[in-house]
Design goal:
Length: 159
């Protein structure tokens, strides 16, 4: 199973996404990390050329994850809306999704709140094995018009 992990953060290059990717790889999943760094003029959006490149990179993936700060959330929405043509499940994590899940859930299938390593691993395993995803802690799951808001996990004490 292949998972694309996209960051719209400008700087620093998304440490959380790197950690999630490393964790997924250690569990046997293949990941592609895509860093859409751009100038810090947050009113600017990605060009059609960039979006087409991202689509090409994600076309063979089974799950697409995106991470953003509040300042780059509009760019994240642009990427999500463009990639919806692929008809792949999307999970949105990072700072913005954690602090504003109500505004993010309308764009994606899943929101990851807080730490993402275990939640994304469970999500990837459930999708791979065609299992129910609606009870995974740290995830909000959109099922039609219903949003399942799962509780948070305990914080990891052994970092």
């Amino acid at each position: 199973m292949k998972i694309a992990l996209i960051s719209t953060n400008t700087y620093p290059a998304d440490q959380g996404l790197r950690t999630v990717s490393s964790y997924l790889k250690s569990k046997g999943f293949e990941t592609k990390m895509i860093f859409l760094t751009d100038i810090e003029d947050y009113s600017k959006f990605y060009s059609k050329k960039v979006l087409k490149q991202v689509m090409s990179l994600c076309s063979d993936c089974d799950l697409i994850g995106i991470s953003s700060m509040a300042s780059t959330s509009k760019r994240a929405i642009q990427v999500i809306n463009y990639l919806k043509k692929l008809k792949k499940p999307f999970v949105w994590g990072g700072v913005h999704a954690t602090i504003s899940p109500h505004s993010c859930i309308s764009y994606v299938n899943y929101i990851c709140i807080g730490e993402g390593e275990e939640a994304i691993l469970e999500l990837a395993e459930a999708i791979k094995n065609k299992k129910d995803t609606s009870k995974i802690k740290n995830l909000w799951v959109k099922k039609g018009d219903i949003v399942v808001r799962n509780p948070l996990r305990n914080l990891e004490e052994r970092l």
